[in-house]
Write a structure and sequence with these properties.
The structure is a homodimer. The first copy, chain A, is α/β, with parallel strands linked by helices. Chain A contains 16 helices and 26 strands. Chain A is 28% helix and 23% strand. At the A-B interface, helix 4, helix 5 and strand 13 of A face helix 4, helix 5 and strand 13 of B.
């Protein structure tokens, strides 16, 4: 029997297995992923380029056709032709999202929270009087003196670039100009009165896996374009810990910083194109992300986030010139960075709080921002506590045998008829399934728990009694979700005993965090008036399934609400409202961080949390 | 008879004449200026390089030896070998100051005013506690929290560069670091506790002709080094008006800006060398200069200073990152630019006021900052008025037949015995004289007025009655100051009727300004309690001579005081004291500018001012 090699396809996060010596091109096509290949795998067209992220040594040496089509630099950077590279061991490869036919689905929608429009950037049309022999005030002073009272605070400070344009501009436009101000205290730009320049701002959510950008009209508050993409840092490692480790030396840090800045600039371009705007229209950028992403994006070492006590370099909100980060925006644009709460509770959690209004809630509410790290926040206007749970990547499909991210071809929901064990499922994009994403796995486990196929310890019952339940080639128990004839990958898609164990570990981490916060606040789950699920997984998981597997304390189901990309929404709000931006600082100062691993109840709570509800 | 060609030698501002077809090398050597020349003018050594600033077309075409020694670029930039270039018409040439044997004397000394030390830049030694599992504040927050109360205002803002170094620095030095703060509100640097880094600031006076730099220890207030040089912009034109015209298009502006920044950076290097410091020790720069120099140095167009009503682009004091001007200082250094009063009353005048304390004087005082433009300020703590007088370059030796700047070889004082007309003079450097500088010319005219050789209309009396008085080759009356045998230039040095007229025009401009200010303030000259003469000319002119020629209203001689480079002193004070810096803004806002040319009394006062006192 031929040895089977398992390999991972990014950015899908899909695990694929293929016989040893199979070319990557053939292995991918067996799973419905067709790379562009004109010559049909003969090494002639050079189109089927892939990037090897890990395990370069587990492939045959580069061939003559590869040396012909790829530069030495490309080869050093891990590029191979998929038709030439044969699998001899485990690898992780990256294919460009365009080649997947469709981009992976990224959560960009969030709550639409109403907010009083009060952005940092504003503009005034100023009509100054021309100089005379009796009035020799400077050009700039003339503008200041002509600003209606209340529209600027005292003397807004000029910027050198603006002053350089000033004399010709005022004289050309009859002393009438548009002043763009930041916080009414600094002049960002001096524009002709009928300039087509728009006042835009962009909110950016920097996730470990994905980036989302929202281009907003700062005068009306409307979102004029949205774009999202995989974080290009994925090429350097899947999870935060790998990135932190990669960024330990300054060379790695700079590489990661450049990658994410490039990704953000691409999104800015895309948003501008969609909104028919130019990057010069962007006068402010707000960004959020977890603390590690925050540090890397600013070029700060995330090293100390890698070991206890996980101390960040800086937690204050920052205002920086966009030039300092080489972001594509107006040269005088400001970058506002929301504050950090702790090493693993970053500006994204602050944005979650702003978006859900937790800090103003009358009664205790809770936020779960579910990902590789799950941030849990409990509180109300009277106070807030938070923690970070190492939930791992299982909810995103990693570590699950047929797991994949919530992209086209993923089974996103599963219903199992409790008596007959008949399976019904829904696939993203409505095509043939390629694998299971997190919400699908949770549904399947919840269904099997209800049917009694899985007991409260997580053990799958004996196979005889249950249709679909069986042992696979490696002797592991598994439950068939989609038979080979229905799938895009030509093999059965099943949920294994191992998958159940992965989910148990992940859900235990989340539950432990929630339970400890409730304990700290001396609250019972029933006293939590609202539960907000944030993030892509949170938007798609069915609350009844999540409750069924005991991922959360026993909340009332009606109180659970999905809020989508709340971090993105919070960033948008901070872009539109100075009051909320001030509030963000207060929130970060006030929200108390609880370190789970050193909490006296941690082990006890965690042990209980590993079980499924009886 | 061979035609005589007159040419100008910079940076001396010396006018030299030589027969047509003379080589520049020979012409210079006749006036005691020996360029390095090993081959003795044969075009072999290539050492006698000069730069032709104006009149390149008035020389013979470049010769074969020049094409051998000079690059094409050098030739395009106006370089010639002095031994090969023959004078066919008027030229202006530049020789490097080093080749003059000694640098021209520049006024760098000023008043030593005592001031309470209160600089913008300060430092604190901070000892923070290391993080523990129970205390996970960020590195930066730890430092802030450890600052003793009163040593910083609230939360000083971090700079990105500092944050990037922070984690390794605090851990390496046991959480003890030196924080360098700006205005106690921004962190400029985070240093090891025993770093040798010094806290220095540099005050720079940007004159049209010369630059002066004062390196100060911001902790003790001591001046640790002083340097001065000719403003490299001199190569682009002698006076402010020529520079303004040159900077009319952006290419010219950038060229002038680069030239002055290069000059300043050279002074910074020189000061650092003298003080055994590095440019990274410099955390703040204050600069002053006239409004045109201020604009050009900031890269702002001085175009509108070139025509009525002479409006500046900006008059507010500015704080800019040193990087924005490419000044050689610590990367986080701040540049503070003192405010402008008007188009021709710049930050240098504000500095003059700070240095003399005019704004706090109980009784009316007056400042004359004498140069090509002479700023006159009249006032006390109760109010200030000022004006600018187009005195022209005569006080600096230009337009005077044997005129030159106050450099080595200049006759700086002249005494004429009223009865015998015997002349006694003093030469800068005590060598043989090469020409007359401004103070020498004023002395000579004052002496001749006293002796009755010049009457109140400025006419030189008939020659018969007076020894030394005669007609020169061009038929003009002149008075012999130094006979050829005593001079370094091999010809007689004399004061001509034309020279007297030049001085009459110049002194009339100054006197008119002073009279109009007194008129505006309804004051009599006798009510002015102190008269401060600022600038190089002011430091060397003898008050009795200045009064004798009627350069000033009839002040009491005892009340006239020379204050040297008051602008430089004022810049130093603004570097050492935040209070004075605040005061400077008030002063600039309060000091009222009087435009002379449109003043109703201008013509009448000016006409009277042209005469010498009877």
């Amino acid at each position: 029997m031929v040895e089977s090699i398992e390999f991972i396809v990014e950015p899908l996060g899909m695990r694929i297995s293929a016989p040893r010596e199979t070319t990557i091109l053939n292995a991918l096509s067996r799973f419905g992923i067709g790379l562009p290949s004109i010559c049909g795998g003969l090494g002639i067209c050079g189109k089927c380029v892939v990037t090897i992220l890990e395990g370069f040594e587990n492939l045959n040496p580069t061939t003559e056709p590869e040396r012909r089509h790829l530069s030495q630099k490309a080869i050093r950077e891990g590029r191979r032709l998929a038709c030439q590279a044969r699998l001899l061991g485990g690898v992780r490869i990256m294919i460009s999202p365009e080649e997947l036919g469709s981009k992976p689905r990224l959560q960009v929608e969030g709550l639409e929270t109403k907010v009083e429009l009060d952005p940092a950037v504003s503009e005034i049309l100023v009509k100054a009087s021309p100089p005379t022999i009796a009035d020799v005030r400077s050009d700039y002073r003339r503008l200041l003196d002509a600003i209606p009272k209340g529209d600027a605070s005292g003397n807004p400070k000029p910027i050198l670039e603006g002053l350089r344009l000033l004399p010709s501009r005022v004289r050309r436009y009859g002393w009438m100009v548009r002043l763009v101000l930041w916080k009414k205290e600094r002049v960002l730009d001096i524009l002709p009165p009928r300039s087509r320049r728009r006042l835009l701002g962009i909110a950016i959510d920097i996730g470990t896996t994905k980036l989302a950008a929202y281009l907003l009209d700062l005068k009306g508050g409307r979102t004029v374009a949205v774009a999202s993409a995989i974080n290009p840092q994925v090429a350097f490692g899947e999870d935060v810990i790998t990135r932190i480790s990669y960024a330990k030396d300054s060379k790695g840090l700079i590489r990661l910083q450049k990658a994410v800045i490039r990704g953000i600039n691409d999104l800015i371009d895309e948003c501008c194109l969609k909104a028919n705007a130019t990057f010069r229209d962007i006068y402010e950028i707000v960004f959020v992300g977890n603390t590690a992403m925050h540090h890397i994006c600013l070029g700060l070492t995330p090293k100390t986030l890698g070991f206890a006590p996980y101390v960040p370099v800086v937690q204050e909100p920052l205002d920086l010139p966009s030039k300092a980060l080489r972001l594509k925006a107006n040269p005088s644009a400001n970058v506002h960075v929301l504050p950090v709460i702790a090493g693993f509770v970053g500006p994204d959690a602050v944005a979650d709080i702003l978006a859900t209004g937790l800090h103003e809630a009358q009664d205790p509410c809770m936020i779960f921002d579910i990902g590789t790290n799950t941030e849990v926040i409990l509180g109300s206007k009277d106070g807030m506590i938070c923690c970070s749970c190492a939930s791992g990547p299982a909810f995103e499909g990693a570590g699950i045998k047929f797991g994949m991210r919530a992209a086209e071809g993923a089974i996103e929901s599963v219903e199992i008829e409790p008596r007959t064990l008949k399976v019904d499922y829904k696939v993203i994009g409505n095509g043939k399934p390629r694998g299971l994403c997190g919400s699908g796995v949770i549904d399947a486990i919840a269904g099997l728990l209800r049917a009694g196929v899985i007991d409260s310890t997580g053990r799958m019952g004996i196979e005889e009694g249950f249709p679909g339940l069986r042992r696979n080639d490696s002797g592991q128990r598994e439950f068939l979700i989609a038979p080979a004839k229905e799938t895009a990958i030509g093999v059965d898609i099943a949920l294994t005993q191992g998958d159940v164990r992965e989910i148990q570990l992940a859900k235990a981490a989340v539950l432990t965090g929630a339970e400890i916060l409730l304990k700290e606040a001396s609250l019972d789950a029933s006293e939590v008036k609202k539960v907000f699920l944030a993030g892509a997984f949170g938007a798609h998981v069915r609350p009844e399934s999540a409750l069924a597997i005991g991922m959360f304390p026993p909340f009332e189901i009606a109180r659970i609400q999905s809020v989508g990309n709340a971090a993105g929404t919070g960033a948008k709000l901070a872009l539109l409202s100075m009051k909320l931006r001030e509030k963000a600082k207060e929130v970060a100062d006030k929200c108390q961080y609880i370190e789970l691993h050193t909490h006296p109840s941690f082990k006890e709570v965690y042990f209980r949390a590993l079980s499924f509800p009886a």
